[in-house]
What we know:
Blueprint: H1 8-33, H2 41-45, H3 52-60, H4 62-85, H5 89-106, H6 128-141, H7 150-165
Amino acid sequence: MRETSFTKVQLSSLLLLRFLVGWHILYEGAAKVINPQWTSLDFLEESQWILSGFSNWIISNPNVLSAVDFLNTWGLVAIGLGIITGLFFKAAALAGALLIFIYYLNSPPLIGMEYALPSDGHNLVVDKNLIEVAALIILALFSTSKIFGLDAFISNFKRKDKLLNE
């Protein structure tokens, strides 16, 4: 596998982006964990686009809704921790991109769609979710975890162990 080298500015910028996105995702999950009243019900009721039928199915099944709430909450925590620590980084970044893209598909900022829940401003097609999806894909493509993160630590440990066993 070819090692990627970055300039200090490139690496610092990618690490900053990684920590900012990771923190945002981790915080979103942690906020849901500590709020026993949180549920995705309100968000799913707002779904108006191509996933609205799937959202209605989730809402109509209390056990499924409970499972979705659990997976969403703890998925955000695991993804955020993976991105920040650089542990299973690429998988965490891609899982985060997929999860946030699902949020986008449920309530995209398209003309003619009005939502009762407050949003982060007036967006058209591009919103913070779509930007975060793009950032996560870029981070997965230019992975820094093999340079700075637990993936690098594990890789170095395995390499040293392999050399000792030869």
